[in-house]
Structures are given as structure tokens and as C-alpha cells.
Amino acid sequence: MRIVAVAGQKGGIGKTTSVMNLSAVLAKGGNRVLVVDADGQRSTTWWAGNGGEDLPFDFAPDVDPKNLARLRELPYDLIFVDTPGNLEATSTLSAVLDSADFVILPLVLDPLAVQPLVRTVKSLVEPRHLDYRVLLNNIDRRRGDAHLQDWEGIVDNLGLARFKNHVRKSASVTDAPLTGRVVTDYTDTRQNRAAIFDYNSVALELQSIWANAPVQAGAI
Ligand SMILES: Nc1ncnc2c1ncn2[C@@H]1O[C@H](COP(=O)(O)OP(=O)(O)O)[C@@H](O)[C@H]1O
Ligand SMILES: [Mg+2]
């Protein structure tokens, strides 16, 4: 089993969106997946509530560090944990990272998002020797390939590990929480194609990263 924390000490970077859509793709791919909402803001819970029984994964809200410390006892292949983006809820975030095997750190192409990312990696991820990848998210295609490449260079120059794949900005992704939908529910139309492609690519990349990395001692 793997416990994946989606983290970053900044709001609005795509933690909740990444948790819901990557979990959906990996659940449809045959994994038993649990999504845990450890963010007191409860966005994931609201989204999952709108989706109801149709979601391809199980779901549980829990911000209690004692419960989060015991996630590994649960019968799943993958547990994705959505975490708080504010600096106050550090005991919850610490409990999640103490149990996690892997961390996904979404990054939007906004200069003001860089410092919180670096701080999260240096203060919370690296001290725990956790494997992680930065996920470039919400990419505005109108800014062009050079803009994206500049940002890949910024992440690389900071010495941070990142996914080779990224997630573009798409209206279907923004609208989906309202109807409780996740990317695996999208019909294969022109406006949905980028989101379907991007989340599938990132999920495949995750599986190839994990195929080369042993799970933590004690894990099943
Ligand atoms: N790839 C994307 N395409 C379109 N909208 C996105 C994308 N990623 C995130 N968003 C939007 O950005 C906002 C913040 O995302 P959210 O997942 O709530 O971030 P966080 O959980 O880090 O606060 C939401 O309105 C969400 O719909
Ligand atoms: Mg969120």
C-alpha cells in the first residue's frame, strides 16, 4: 500500500483537484483507493458529497492526527490524502506526512507560489526523506510552450524533483466539483480531451516512479 499526501502551504494551487482526479484515474486502473480529506476547509468532502455513490474510490474526512497516524492499517492499495494549505493546521499536516510514502506538490505558474513550495519541501518533506514530485498545474495554454519550459527550468534550478507531465488549465476541471464529477466521468469531447490526457499521463508517470521505488519498511 502507498499513502500519498498532496500538500503545499498555499491555497488555490490544486491540491484538492489533484487528489480527486488522480485518485479517480488510479481507482479506474484497478487499485483499491481511499481519499482522505484532512483539510478542515472540507472542499474535498463537499465535492465528494456532490458525487455520491458514483465516485470510483472510497472517501473519508478526518483531521484527527491520531487517526491519520493509523492510515496504514486500512485495506487499500492507495490512500490519497488532501491536506490543509494554511500554516495553522501543522499538527494535521505533520501527522499525514509522518505516515506518507510519497508527496505530490502542485505548483501553479505564479511567482508568489514558489516560496511556499520551497518552504514546504525544505521544512516538511526533505527532513522526512520522503520521495516527492512537484506537479505543474493549471497551465494556461495561451501563454505558450516557452512559458511552461521557463517554469520547468525554475523548478529544476531550485533542485526540486518534478513530474515530466503537467496538467493544463481546463474549464471542465474547474466546473466538475459542482456536479461531483471526476476526470474519469468526462465524455471524450474536444474540450475534455486535455484534462483526460493530462491526468492519465501523470497517473502513469506516478506508477512508473513507484515501480522503481520499494515501499516503506513495514508496508504490505
Ligand atoms: N488544472 C486545472 N484546470 C482548471 N482549474 C483548476 C485546475 N487546477 C485547479 N483548478 C482550480 O483552481 C482552484 C483551486 O484549486 P484547489 O484544488 O481547490 O486548490 P487547493 O486545494 O490547493 O486550495 C479551484 O477553483 C480549481 O477548480
Ligand atoms: Mg483544497
Please explain how this structure is put together.
This protein is an alpha/beta fold and 220 residues long. The protein has helices at residues 15-28, 43-51, 65-68, 90-99, 114-125, 144-157, 171-179, 193-211, and strands at residues 2-6, 33-37, 58-61, 78-82, 102-108, 131-139, 167-168. It has a 7-stranded parallel beta sheet, with helices on both faces. Helix 6 links the parallel strand 6 and strand 7. Helix 1 crosses helix 8 and helix 2 (43-51) packs across helix 7 (171-179). The chain starts with a strand and ends in a 9-residue tail after the last helix. The model has no long low-confidence stretch (mean pLDDT 95). Residues 15-16, 39, 43, 82 line the site of magnesium ion. It comes from Leifsonia shinshuensis. This is ParA family protein. InterPro entries: CobQ/CobB/MinD/ParA_Nub-bd_dom (IPR002586), DNA_Partitioning_ATPase (IPR050678), P-loop_NTPase (IPR027417). Residues 4-181 form the CobQ/CobB/MinD/ParA nucleotide binding domain.
